[in-house]
């Protein structure tokens, strides 16, 4: 199980196992891909930076806890 040290301003704390963390990474990747499909370079585009940051931080957490084993997502 992974217990994240949450920021004091955080309202939610999430605890998950290895498979749950993989699913969270996959969800962030899916959100990025979906946003890329709908971003056409106009004023209606959404900022995907938070999704990229979330994906990167989740991958860093995965590697720090489980190493590089089975990181294929």
Order of SSEs: EEHH
Count of the domains? 1
What is the number of beta strands?
Answer: 2
Main sheet: strand order: 1-2
Low-confidence stretches: none
Q: Assembly state here?
A: single chain
Shape: globular
Number of helices: 2
Helicity level? 40-55%
Radius of gyration: 14 Å
Strand content: 5-15%
Main sheet specs: 2 strands, antiparallel
Q: Main traits of this protein?
A:
73 residues, mainly alpha
Q: What does the model show?
A:
The chain is mainly alpha-helical and 73 residues long. It has one domain (14-66). The protein has helices at residues 18-38, 49-66, and strands at 2-3, 15-16. The protein starts with a strand and ends in a 7-residue tail after the last helix.
Summarize the structure.
The protein is mainly α and 73 residues long.
Question: How would the blueprint of this fold be written?
Answer:
Blueprint: E1 2-3, E2 15-16, H1 18-38, H2 49-66
Helix pairs in contact: 1-2
């Amino acid at each position: 199980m992974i217990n994240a040290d949450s920021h004091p301003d955080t309202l939610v704390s999430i605890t998950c196992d290895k498979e749950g963390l993989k699913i969270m990474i996959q969800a962030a990747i899916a959100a990025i891909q979906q946003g890329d499909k709908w971003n056409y370079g106009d004023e209606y585009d959404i900022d995907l930076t938070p999704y990229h940051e979330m994906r990167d931080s989740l991958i860093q957490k995965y590697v720090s806890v489980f190493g590089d084993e089975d990181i294929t997502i």
